DNA sequence: ACTCCGATGTCAGTCGCTGTCATGGGTACC
DNA sequence: GGTACCCATGACAGCGACTGACATCGGAGT
């Protein structure tokens, strides 16, 4: 049929994760990944901008979830309610069946500083996204930034709990519970 | 006197920042930096683990500020009060005279994704530091994580404001104000 | 049948980074 | 004052990530 097998990008990703888990990220060469897929190093870099990207590709999609979440929030919602809506919107991208894959991916990332670095940048991107959304809804600086930072914090905390929790509790639930705990944690301003 | 000029590490750093500002980070080779200092590439890597490190070296020092801040907090302080003490402790490492240098450094970092990446990792390290300190003071998970995340958020937000503010307001003041605003932002839990 | 497209291969080259060994002035110790 | 060691640096070879330029050749459209 076709000259080349379809799904090249996905096959590269699958081979990469398998090799990373088997012998480690640093110990795996891009050439190894390409060879395992029957391709060349050059072709790998045509699909992924760099070696780490093979683990982070697709992460732009669920950023839209944060945006949609805020857009779906009712009129007159407070900043933190907007944040909550945002997180819930993103949670749709993480159904239970995606958990095993996310766990394997996280195992690789946690084992390597360079990958953790990239991951923390992605979190910063999430925060920026939420901040922009809040400002579209009239929240002004520096409250927009603070609220967005809180959003990023709660999301990453909730996500890690979602991965670790064997009860398979939905990400949404964890997010809401953490937000509740956060509200309890921050005492009302006595008015300095 | 000595066989080699003293302060090699600092001279490398100065040359690096100058070159980065002049022609950009990517466009500057480690060899360029070394040559500008009258040294070799190999020697650069003996002082800095990698090219980016030349901009982040010394960042471990003020992490101690967070630790000392929490240790100095009064007995019976709440989680958020501990966080406040932590941030104030770190602020000591950023006196007004350090601002110009920090600004130049930030200019370079903001202009390059790879550097922003490293920076966001540093922020994650700060959060982890605060979390550990909070747990030493009896705060338990997940509150310790949430509070620490809030701390990291407020610190980075305050720091950027400190850099941008032409009034040269002390970092401490900005931190306290942001924390006050945060408390106002988070509504008391109505008790779900 | 002809043409063009586009995913892939090939190859050469740059740059970040590392291991290894050599060099030679300082310094301490006898 | 000689000798032995120390250690910051140089010199060199090499690996892996990544890029640019050009060639290849089945398939789709005309």
Automatic annotation (TrEMBL), chains A, B:
Q: Which residues form the HTH tetR-type domain?
A: 6-66
Instruction: Say which species the protein is native to.
Output: Amnibacterium soli
> What are the alphabetically sorted keywords of the record?
DNA-binding, Transcription, Transcription regulation
Q: Which residues bind DNA?
A: 29-48
What is the superkingdom listed in this entry's lineage? Bacteria
Q: One Pfam family name from the record?
A: TetR_C_14
Q: Which InterPro entries match?
A: Homeodomain-like_sf (IPR009057), HTH-type_TetR-like_transc_reg (IPR050109), HTH_TetR (IPR001647), MftR_C (IPR041347)
Return the protein name. Answer: TetR family transcriptional regulator
């Amino acid at each position: 049929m076709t000259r080349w097998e379809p799904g090249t990008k996905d096959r590269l990703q699958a081979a990469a994760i398998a090799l990373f888990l088997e012998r480690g990220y640093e110990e795996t060469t891009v050439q190894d990944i390409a060879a395992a897929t029957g391709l060349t190093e050059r072709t790998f870099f045509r699909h992924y901008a760099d070696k780490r990207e093979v683990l982070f590709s697709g992460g732009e999609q669920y950023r839209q979830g944060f945006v949609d979440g805020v857009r779906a929030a009712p009129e007159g919602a407070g900043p933190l309610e907007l944040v909550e809506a945002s997180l819930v919107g993103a949670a749709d991208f993480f159904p239970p069946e995606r958990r095993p894959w996310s766990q394997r991916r996280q195992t690789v990332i946690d084992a390597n500083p360079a990958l953790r670095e990239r991951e923390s940048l992605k979190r910063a991107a999430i925060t920026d996204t939420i901040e922009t959304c809040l400002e579209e809804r009239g929240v002004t600086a520096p409250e927009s930034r603070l609220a967005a930072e809180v959003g990023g914090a709660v999301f990453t905390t909730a996500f890690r709990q979602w991965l670790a929790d064997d009860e398979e509790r939905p990400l949404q639930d964890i997010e809401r519970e953490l937000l509740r705990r956060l509200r309890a944690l921050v005492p009302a301003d006595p008015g300095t």
